[in-house]
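Below: protein 1.
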Amino acid sequence: MSDLQKIQQQVKIKMMSYLMEGVGRFPTPSFPVAQPHIVDNFPPTTQVSTCNRCELAQCRKRVVVATQYEPRDYFVLADFPDVNDEQNSEVFSSSSPLSAIAINLLNKLKIFSQCHFSFALKCVPAKLLPLNALTTCARSNLAPELSQVSPKMILCFGQKAFRALSCLDPLLVQEPFEENTQLRFVFRDNMPIILFFLPSLQDLRDFPQWRKQVWDLLSVAIPHSR
């Protein structure tokens, strides 16, 4: 490979990384050294991290879940982790081209430090999900996580994440909802939580033009971003 070809290859790789991280819509953030939702107070996630309720327990490297829970204003929920999330210590890893899109957005909205990060399915899935895996994970793992974090707002990225929440609030499935919609999620003590149903992170990667719709919706709804 000639020097010119090497330079062209480097430029191509850099441009692709910018696109996948959402720089086309969300400015490049300064990533914090560590995610802010790891604390010492709450008992934790031992049961979740050793979960064996579905077949994914047999092939996973780790359960992608926060090591501790604490109250946060914003609960960021995506469909499921990818191998980059699985291989790192964070829940949403900046090395993941999918999670990096969410991290970019949350930094621009100025709420990253107030966010708790989670996946509806906490293991990297095979091509086909085990039967009832999403429902089981929602009721066994997501429900206690939501209870302890006690958020004021949920940012729900993707259909699977929305289906997981629907397992905990049946009213969400009574009628079809479109993406980029604000809803109410009633989970604990009948206290409604603001819920934004958004496109999946994979869709936001594959269709960068959709990111502007997400930004337009959240930048108005979240006071910190104004």
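Below: protein 2.
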Amino acid sequence: MASRYTCKICLRALISRSSPNISQSTLRSSKRTILPSRCFSLSTRRLDDTRQAVGKGTLTDDQKPADPLAQGDLLKDAPSSASTSLKLAATLRKRFKSTTETYVAYGSTEQLYKTCGAQANYKIIRDKDGLAPKTATGEEIGESDSWWYKDLGLSCAFNTWAQVTFLHMYILTVRIRLFPPEHAPTWQQHLIDHFSFAAEEKMEQQHAITSGSIRSRYLKDLFIQWRGILAAYDEGLVKGDAVMAAAVWRNIFKGAEDVDPVHLATVVSYLRREIARVGALSDDLIANGVVDFGDPRTENSAVVMKSKLMDAPFKETGPAQSTARFWHHFREELSRTTNNCGLVQAHITIIRTESA
């Protein structure tokens, strides 16, 4: 059971550490301000004096025992230990604002990261010889029921888990950027720190990478990937779905040529929807780590829906019209050319015409 008693020595050490120039008088005044005085005092000397006065019949008004009812009111008005702890915590926050901010951010981002890391988590199953199945590139394959593996067909491996976790961490990073400028960097740093701790633990426990130098090298590579993901997804967030789809294709689908366009569009739709939804959450929910992600399968109906623009006539304007006219002239000249010299002359003629 935790004690409610506040150690005066610890308090003095904290204050002196944060402000070395604080005088002893300041410490005594702060101690009197923070720590409440006792409501009553049990003193043997005073009790004996009172008994002697009662025996002699010379009890004064100051020596008379207090009325029990009045004493009860006094105890009722006295601050409780719970309120004392709250006052002490509030005072410490004022004195050590940067320290308490770091602890709060560390605890909240730990909860936020756990939500991100659980989206595509997996487990390595080894045989009696301690071996696990591997991909063609040598990655160990695990087992998981996650949508990212079952429905999208992604390889259940460490790199896939890292990329899916990065995607959800990016969603939270976009929301954390809305924090005041003096707080946001601390929260972002703690979020990536929690990923590093979990990634190293997964390397050691799931993949039996016992060498600390190898784990450190992998962590550096992951951090470089994270910086690249921030730039790629930020660009897609600004320039549109086509650029975002290219970033998702490179990172989540590893640039595979046989990727299903529906799967790619589903991830892009899910990413944008979650950024909008999490961005609308209050600061209190984010600060308390109360964040959950939606189900990507709900995006399928929106992705497969045929757009009305697909039936609309295509109109070329601006640079696109000029480019189309260029290739039209090129095909006409090419059809009238039967040798290489004529082909080169056709190129020159077309380029001169377009330049004019």
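Residues 1-6, 26-44, 68-76, 336-356 have pLDDT under 50 and may be disordered.
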